[in-house]
Design brief:
It is a single chain. This protein has helices spanning 12-42, 46-82, 86-113, 115-121, 128-141, 143-158, 162-185, 200-222, 231-236, 239-272, 276-292, 294-312, 316-350, 356-369, 373-388, 392-418, 420-447. It is mainly alpha-helical. Helix 2 (46-82) packs parallel to helix 12 (294-312).
Length: 449
């Protein structure tokens, strides 16, 4: 066991708190970018708000590929430290960052080339497509920057450095907060001479600049850990072996993380067949939902290092304890949050739009879908643990069942009889069933050791 495997010592409850609280700050900062974007883009009109509703699930889906790389790097580093192999952890962390950037270049080019057919498939209108292009073209070219941040954060997370990871996230989010109003809607005459702003493209420019600041912060923080960026360590890596070890987890984890936003993209297309107001309300409510589930997302990210280090050190009881406590939190927090959002949905809706149809769909979605948060939390925390254990295929399969076996077929069939509310209900059913499956699979997997 390595001295750097600090999560193998001390209180599991304490580690869950100290790893998750900074992650909540970091994930909140990231999610706030979407809320701030939606607020200022909403000032450009309903078409712009509908355009960002189409963009949101796609951007989340491709970002999920980066999250998968972060999970893969986290997994190999945490287990290596738990096993006492600091040198392997150092090599894998450095190689993982370089691999992330390389994959980001490839994915960015592919995304740029497929923009029009992709969003046409989602039934974006001729009015919305130019707005979508204005955002997604610069976003595509900047994708390697986001992948670099994911690589850095995976290296930090694997070491149990949740606080440092949150610093990276807050840095690029803060840059986005400052730049959004300037680059999207412009400034008054007395500030910067009355800069007009770039509209939809301005939101993308703010994101790219924020990522650049985040990379600078991340590299500086890495230099303060046991796994600093080192060109010599990258050269020492066996490329095939290192790539295989990381992608063995990162590949399934990427698809597992991407499955949910892919499902939401299909739901968006189904909702688009109803009305533009329904799409706008659904998309804006999705931003609030993303923010409400931040603690669950933070816990799913922090559980990996705790389970991975303890499992690598063969302290199986500590890993099981972490999962039991995490599951209790998911259920309690999920139900309380659902009650609050179901009651206050109309109030939140008024913050995003004055259109009565948009606010009605916004509130309706939260009244139904919010009751699945507990199940969603159980599923993603189970996925985080399975990825840490090197069982990424298990996580992928249960995520696929949730979306492709439950959510999409139910939404497609039930809407013919019960209308748009059935689409929202299909997400609720998928989260409840997915949570039960996730809890069962991780219990069976961890019981065997």
């Amino acid at each position: 066991m390595s001295e750097n495997a600090k999560l193998t010592r001390g209180s599991i409850r304490g580690h869950l708190v100290t790893q998750t609280l900074p992650a909540i700050v970091g994930v909140s900062a990231i999610m706030s970018i979407g809320l701030v974007d939606a607020y200022f883009i909403g000032q450009l009109g309903q078409d712009a708000l509908a355009a960002i509703s189409f963009i949101f699930p796609i951007s989340v889906a491709i970002t999920s590929l980066g999250v998968g790389m972060m999970v893969g790097i986290n997994s190999v580093i945490s287990r290596a430290l738990g096993e006492g192999d600091d040198e392997r952890a150092l090599r894998r962390g450095n190689f993982g960052i370089v691999l992330s950037v390389f994959l980001g270049l490839i994915l960015g080019v592919l995304l740029y080339a497929s923009l029009d057919p992709l969003f046409a498939l989602m039934q974006a209108s001729e009015r919305e497509l130019p707005l979508i292009r204005a955002y997604m073209q610069p976003f595509s070219f900047g994708f390697p920057l986001m992948m670099a941040i994911m690589g850095i954060n995976g290296t930090l997370r694997g070491q149990g450095e949740a606080r440092k990871t949150s610093y990276v996230s807050v840095t690029y989010a803060a840059a986005n907060w400052v730049l959004d109003p300037i680059l999207i809607t412009g400034t008054p005459d007395f500030l910067f001479g009355g800069f007009e702003g770039f509209g939809m493209a301005g939101a993308a420019y703010a994101t790219l600049i924020g990522w650049t600041f985040g990379i600078a912060m991340g590299l500086w923080l890495l230099s303060k850990t046991s796994i600093p960026l080192s060109l010599s360590k990258i050269k020492q890596c066996n490329v095939r072996e290192s790539t295989s070890e990381i992608l063995r987890v990162a590949g399934p984890a990427s698809f597992s993380n991407a499955i949910n936003p892919i499902g939401l993209s299909v739901l968006t297309a189904l909702i688009a067949s109803e009305s533009a107001a329904a799409v706008a309300g659904f998309g804006a409510a999705g931003r609030v939902q993303s923010f409400a589930t931040v603690p669950l997302l933070a816990l799913s990210g922090s559980i990996g290092a705790i389970v991975g280090q303890n499992w690598g050190a063969k302290q199986f009881g500590r890993a099981r304890e972490a999962m039991w406590l995490a599951g209790l939190f998911c259920v309690g927090y999920g139900l309380i949050t659902a009650a609050l959002l179901a009651w206050g949905g109309a109030w939140f809706a008024d913050m995003f739009s004055e259109d009565a149809q948009v606010t009605a769909q916004f509130a309706s979605y939260l009244r139904i879908a919010a009751w699945g948060y507990a199940g969603f939390g159980l599923l993603i925390v189970a996925n985080g643990a399975l990825n840490a254990l090197g069982r990424a295929r298990h996580a992928l399969m249960q995520s696929a069942v949730r979306v492709f076996v439950v959510m999409l077929p139910l939404g497609w069939l039930a809407r013919e009889y019960f209308g748009i509310g059935a689409i929202y209900g299909s997400e609720l059913a998928a989260n409840v069933i997915g949570g039960l499956i996730g809890a069962f699979v991780v219990w069976r997997t961890m019981r065997r050791s």
